[in-house]
Amino acid sequence: MTRKLACALAAAAIAVALTSGAGAQEKTPTAQPLRGPVSIPETNNSGIYKMERHDRVIPRNHAWQPPVIPHNVKGYQITKDVNMCMVCHSSKAAPRTGATPVAKSHYLDRDGKELPNISTRRYFCLQCHVPQFDAEPLVENTFGKAK
Length: 147
Ligand code: HEC
Ligand code: HEC
What we know:
Elements: H1 3-23, H2 40-43, H3 84-89, H4 94-97
Bound molecules: heme C (2 copies).
One heme C binds near residues 55, 71, 126 and 129.
């Protein structure tokens, strides 16, 4: 290949790259949200629902489900120094507080080694366990318990 030809080919390649790049500036199609064509601030209802209080555990829907939280969790802080949930839910405190002790899995590190305290993998409880609100489902559905 001559030097001139190589230069011409390189220039052509750059030109192609530039034109296809220009395509990316076109308006990308957006997905239609379930709430319809209204903006989030218009539909933001946070704060109007109340956290439910059951005073007893809520039956699970399938094996290995993280049980949902049957009580209010307002003000229960989880910071690097304190985990309010563990004040009641640690296996030591549970007999006194009446809370279900956290599962054994919550004291294991990733190698399956038992730890004296809650594992960092289970530290942020609300990652998996959620309180319940008196809100209607956003979309009607036929969700049922696994048999
Ligand atoms: C003041 C004590 C207390 C604190 C703090 C507390 N809980 Fe509880 N929790 C309970 C008790 C007692 C129950 C048993 C049901 C009931 O009486 O509401 C319970 C039940 C639960 C259950 C249901 C367990 C099951 O077997 O179904 C979950 C999940 C749970 N709590 C998670 C949490 C999380 C997450 C936090 C922190 C954000 C927390 N709890 C903070 C006392 C507490
Ligand atoms: C990564 C997800 C995850 C995190 C984080 C987590 N859990 Fe769980 N939790 C589960 C799952 C899944 C189960 C049910 C299966 C099991 O027993 O391991 C469970 C079970 C439980 C139970 C019921 C135990 C029983 O014997 O029935 C309680 C109570 C509980 N968790 C409390 C907590 C608290 C309090 C925290 C925070 C300190 C926490 N969990 C963090 C996933 C999680």
